[in-house]
Amino acid sequence: MDHIVATDSQETHFFADVCKNFDHAAQFTKHDAGLLDQIKSCNSVYRFRFPIRKGNGFEVIDAWRVEHSHHQSPTKGGIRYSEMVNEDEVMALAALMTYKCAIVNVPFGGAKGGIKITPKNYTVQELENITRRYTVELTKKNFLGPSIDVPAPDYGSGEREMSWIADTYATMNPGQGDALGCVTGKPIALHGIAGRREATGRGVAIAARECVNIGEDMQRLGLMPGLAGKRVIVQGLGNVGYYSAKFLAEFGAVIVGLCEYEGAIYNAEGLDVEAVFQHRKSTGSILNFPGAQNFERSSEGLEQPCDILVPAALENQITVENVRNLQAKIIVEGANGPTTPEAEAIFYEMGGIIVPDMYANAGGVTVSYFEWLKNLSHVSFGRMNRRFEENSNLNLVNMVEGITGVALTPQQRSTIIKGASELELVNSGLEDTMIRSYHEIRQTYVNTPGIDTLRTAAFVGAINKIAVSYQNLGVWP
Ligand code: NAD
Fold first, then answer.
1. CB 205 within 8 A of CB 251
2. Closest by CA position to 64, among listed 54, 52, 73, 77
3. Helices 422-447 and 454-472 meet at what angle, rounded to 10?
């Protein structure tokens, strides 16, 4: 174990909460206590500080990279840019990445990064300097590389930051053919992959759809099965929240509430997510959207009437303080750690169900995996087989038309003949992953006596898979 610096004076409990959930789930497994301890611990915590030029002076930036588990390589996880980042939070998020990857069968260990800044307080040039310097520090310490540790976007970061990381790493590693696989969530023009930007939100929407499609579970909640007409409130209109809301609406749900840090809006008739997004862009606030009720205190928005609540902003949003005020029957966790363990227990007592973060928001890492595979193989998905598929389909259609004497319309022909594009393959892989994983978790939930939540079931599945990896490595009997 490689522990470079791991102290933090701030009192935070997020990592302890993740460990609490882990320990609770571990009771339902039969693994050696030492092995469980190895799975649970953070393997490497790298804390560092570096100066950047700001205005006429300098500023020292605090940053972290945590590799939680090396049972698979590389490790993987986003980089958070936020003034609230601290070591405990990065450790917790790295641990969640380990379990998340195991749940959706993505062969990575978990990691996470943090840079303690509020991005809007810096110029683009300063953000670029910070990101490039962060990359240099990670590279120097062997905390970055396509086979070592592969970051991605998280709260406060996106494609732009990922392209700076890729460029810096490639520059420092001349001749390394796989260098661009050192980070995912890159722009498509820089060897990113179609569908990555919206992947987490699309995955959240699929997770919600799978949950509400199970008739017996919905009956217990007093709801009709299916997403059609389900009332949804989403917290956070960033990458995860915006796309979750957009795809949930596309799947037939009605977005009745949206919450941002400056306030919340609600309209029982439904909100047009794109129009709200544009309204916020032009006015600088989500408030005063035509036809919607305003809530100056954003957290009040979470407590309005709905069937499904999607927290997609930050951790610790649903706590013992507010959980009893929620009217939702289902929480689908777009963010990492939005519900505290105590609040989760109360929500289940209230008869609700929580689709846990480590599964619900795993769409991002799933498509990041596809991007990494694309970068290592140096070929985009569909390039080898698309034309072959189209020719085969064309021959089949011609043959059937010849035999039956029935001619298809040009539109029918092109629908049948068309080979799959990269985006279609990515979406198909994502959907398949989200559907399979939900049913795997639910089976454990339903079939294991004593398991009280979907989260515990998800943890049990993850622990068992990681234990097998250690056993295969010959590390544990
Ligand atoms: P983002 O920076 O794109 O968006 C976050 C949004 O939340 C912002 O619009 C911000 O203004 C809003 N917000 C902040 N505090 C709020 C509050 N108190 N109330 C309401 N809104 C608030 O970040 P993101 O990438 O969408 O990440 C959001 C969450 O999803 C994080 O927990 C992150 O770890 C998790 N996540 C992200 C990804 C990904 O692919 N980006 C993948 C998995 C999990």
1. yes
2. 77
3. 110
Q: Could you tell me which of 83, 94, 6 has the C-alpha nearest to residue 46? A: 6
Is the CB of residue 139 less than 8 Å from the CB of residue 167? no
DSSP 3-state of 465: helix
pLDDT one-digit tens code per residue, 390-402 = 999 999 999 999 9
Catalytic residue positions, numbered? 112
Q: What share of the chain is helix, strand, coil (3-state, %, to 5)?
A: 50, 15, 35
For residue 312, what are its two tokens? 């997609």
Closest ligand 1 atom to Cα of 362: 43
What the block records as the tokens of 331 is 């929480």
- 367 touches 181 (CB < 8 A): no
* Residue having the nearest C-alpha atom to atom 8 of ligand 1: 238
- Convert the pLDDT of each residue in 154-209 to its tens digit: 999 999 999 999 999 999 999 999 999 999 999 999 999 999 999 999 999 999 99
Q: Does residue 338 have a cis bond before it (omega within 30 degrees)?
A: no
Q: Residues near 40 by Cβ (< 8 Å), separated by ≥ 6?
A: 19, 22, 23, 95
The residue written with tokens 């919905």 in the block is 218
Identity at 347, one-letter amino acid code: F
| Domain ranges within the chain, ordered by starting residue | 8-189, 199-360
Distance CA 151, CA 364 (A): 12
Class of domain 8-189: alpha beta
Q: Please determine whether the domains at 8-189 and 199-360 fall in the same fold group of CATH.
A: yes
Taking the CB of residue 220, how many other CB atoms lie within 10 A of it? 12
pTM: 0.94
Nearest to 117 by CA among 89, 157, 78, 162: 157
**199-360 is classed CATH 3.90.1150.10:** no
Residue 86 Ramachandran class (φ > 0 left, ψ -120 to 50 alpha, else beta): beta
Which strand ranges, in their side-by-side order, compose the sheet holding 353-355? Answer: 293-295, 263-266, 254-260, 231-235, 308-311, 330-332, 353-355
How confident is the model over 88-109, as pLDDT tens digits? 999 999 999 999 999 999 999 9
* Spatial distance between the Cα atoms of 211 and 219, rounded to a whole number of angstroms: 12
Pocket test for ligand 1, best of 17, 66, 115, 239 (most atoms within 8 A of CB): 239
**38/280 Cα distance (integer angstroms):** 46
Find tokens 């490639």 and name the residue: 170
What span, in angstroms and rounded, lies between the C-alpha atoms of 407 and 202? 37
Residues within a 6 A CB radius of ligand 1: 78, 153-156, 200, 235-241, 259-261, 298, 312-314, 334-336, 361, 364
List, in order, residues 6 or more apart from 361 with CB less than 8 Å away. Answer: 100, 200, 203, 204, 240, 333, 334, 335, 336
